[in-house]
Amino acid sequence: MSKKKRVVRLNNDYTNDSIVKQQNHIKEKLPRRKYMGIISVIAVVLMSLSVVNLVKSYTELEDKMKLEKKYTEEDKNLGTSLDMKERQVVKLQNDDYVAKYARVKYLYSKDDELVFSTPDLLTTNQGNEKND
Question: Structurally, how many domains does the chain consist of?
Answer without folding.
Answer: 1
